[in-house]
């Protein structure tokens, strides 16, 4: 079985777990609050900045070159979104604990096993391509955003045909010159990547719950 097919099949359970994280369920229901959305964007900024820096280091590596596409890069789009919500965001933002673990993993792999970056590229970019337009619409509606403002992350301006590009990307995955052992490592790393995303989503949800608790305590104390 081709690597792209194995990745889809063998990460399905972890993928479903990520989709069922409370934060994501709230996002899909349109009940996400602006603070949580900005926290997500901020975390993703550090994630994609790290991933893309490391991918650039290995752009000519034969184990990554078939899936290297600058059109997928999200760092600039995330910066644009964050500036829309707060012009001075970069002077205040820093990666959360979950995101420090996530980006630390990516940097480590870049040093010791660059081919495993393909797993993180697969999990994030194919997910962005697959659900981007739906999530953009949900975010725009639930947060009452004007079209194109605060949702650049979901827009792939340099890709004309998303379905065709996804096929191209999967073909690149299948062309990676990996041994069977390395293919298995990539699959396991992709599963791990989904769990790193789950940790980040749970962290956002936990922060939202704590904020609500603090508001309730303040209101109770003032009563």
Protein architecture, described:
Pfam families: Heme_oxygenase (PF01126). Keywords: Heme, Iron, Metal-binding. It comes from Rubellicoccus peritrichatus. InterPro entries: Haem_Oase (IPR002051), Haem_Oase-like (IPR016053), Haem_Oase-like_multi-hlx (IPR016084). There is one protein chain. The protein is mainly alpha-helical and about 220 residues long. The protein has one domain: Heme Oxygenase, Chain A. Helix content is about 70%, strand content about 0%. It has helices spanning about 5-10, 10-20, 20-30, 35-55, 75-85, 95-110, 115-140, 160-175, 180-220. Mean pLDDT is about 90; it is low at about 210-223.
The secondary-structure class comes to mainly alpha
The fraction of residues in strands falls at under 5%
Mean pLDDT: 91
Secondary-structure element string: HHHHHHHHH
Tell me the distance between the termini: 64 Å
- Judging from the principal axes of the Cα atoms, what is the shape? globular
Biggest pleated sheet:
none
Q: Considering DSSP H and I runs of 4 or more, what fraction of the residues is helical?
A: over 70%
Using the 3D structure, state the CATH architecture: Up-down Bundle
Query: Quaternary arrangement of the chains shown?
Result: single chain
Number of helices: 9
Please identify the top-level CATH class.
Answer: Mainly Alpha
Radius of gyration using CA atoms only:
18 Å
Low-pLDDT windows of residues: 208-223
CATH superfamily: Heme oxygenase-like
In the CATH hierarchy, the third-tier topology is known as: Heme Oxygenase, Chain A
Tally of distinct domains: 1
